[in-house]
Structure formats: structure tokens, C-alpha cells
Amino acid sequence: MTSESLDRDVRLFILQHFVESARPPTPQETGEALHLTLKESAAAYDRLASDHVLVLAPGTHEIRMANPLSAVQTTFPVHIGGKRFYGNCIWDALGAVAMLGGSGTIDSRCACCDEALTLEIDNLELRAVEAVVHFAVPAAHWWDDIVYT
Amino acid sequence: MLLFRSEEHIDRWCEKRGLQRGAILSPATALRLGAIWYADKQSPDWRRKTVDEAQAVFAKLGLVGDFWRLRQ
């Protein structure tokens, strides 16, 4: 198996596990599922992180982001089919709805005043809402500090 | 990328942090961006977009100018 096809299988398993369990798998869980050694699984996590497909907690193989999904609670909870996920940002929360069938609800808040802002999406159609999205960091710098972005 | 009640709230938030206003999108445009970016993420054939492909996505959605330029 090439590292490219291995990384594809690891990426797909991570997302599948994340969607089913609402949390990302550890390298050990991924290794067991895909018949990889822990070293092989961890190396795949490193390559995927290096390619900006995953974000790992610093100095670990703990997945912080498997975009569009966040492994930690954020102010972008996404409700789809009775499950709750978290987007890393509003773009990712909307992307999570798109990735998971195109219909769902995002129970967010105004970043300024903390007022509840709910976005309802049905078949990729957004119900009218009084809200705006702000990108603070220019595109060329998004990966300088992706957690802040 | 954060959500706000209005542009006035964005300006208030930026002022508190000493930041310049960045780029503002409607939630509908952000949904289109999210769909283009992530709808196929669970496909075996998915691959990360090249810089040129990503730039073309931004342009398609009218996201142009220095703020959206991926190459400096």
C-alpha cells in the first residue's frame, strides 16, 4: 500500500468514526480498524497534519480538528439527525451541514453580544436570518495560526 | 470566522480588539463556500484544493481582492 492510499484510508476512517461517534479516533483505534501498527497510524496522522487535512494538539497525535469537524466544543454546534457536532468556525459549521447531507441546524451566538443566532439549513437552502459572517484574518494567513483563524 | 448579529456588531468587536474590519459575507455565501469546500470531504476521491483551485472558488463567489489572495 502506498502512503497516499494509506493516508486516504486513514482520512476516511477518521471522518467516518467522527461522524458515527461525534469524536475523532485515536491513532490506536485507527490502527486497529485498518490493521496498521501504531507507528504507521501515527505517521499517517503526521502526514495528514502536515498536509493541513488534520490539526493535531501540539506535540501529540490527538486530533483537534478534522475539518470541518472540531474535537473540542466551540460556539458552532451543529445538530444533524439527532447528533451534535461542532464546527471549528462558522464556515466549517456550514460545511459540516453540507458534508452530512445538506440539512441541519447551527445554534451559534453573536461573537460580540453573545445573543443566540440560529441558522437553519434545509437541502442546502438557508432560512432567512439576520446575521453576517466575518473573516478577520486574510486568506494568505489562515494557516499561520489555524486555531485563531 | 465568526458569526455576528450585524455589521455594527462586527465593528464593535473589532474596535475592542484593536483590529481592522476583515471581510464580511452573508450567511448564504458562507454556506455556498462551505458546501463547495466540504460537501465531498467523505469521498475517497477527495483531495485538498490547490491554491489555484481555491482561488477560483473564491472568485466564483465574488471573494476577490487582497484579502482573498492566497499567494502574497
As a percent range, the share of strand residues of chain B is 5-15%
Shape of chain B: globular
Helix and strand sequence of chain B: EHEHH
Most extensive contact: A-B, 49 and 43 residues
Oligomerization state: heterodimer
Beginning-to-end CA distance, first to last residue of chain B:
20 Å
Average pLDDT over all residues of chain A:
94
Helix proportion range of chain B: 40-55%
Helix and strand content put the structural class of chain B at mainly alpha
Can you summarize the main beta sheet of chain A? 5 strands, antiparallel
As a whole number of angstroms, the C-alpha radius of gyration of chain A is: 16 Å
Number of strands of chain B: 2
What is the fold's blueprint, element by element?
The complex is a heterodimer of chains A (149) and B (72).
Chain A: H1 3-21, H2 27-34, H3 38-50, E1 55-56, E2 63-66, E3 69-70, E4 77-80, E5 83-86, H4 90-99, E6 104-109, E7 116-122, E8 125-126, E9 132-135
Antiparallel strand pairs in A: 1-2, 2-3, 4-5, 4-6, 6-7, 7-8
Chain B: E1 2-4, H1 7-17, E2 23-25, H2 27-38, H3 51-60
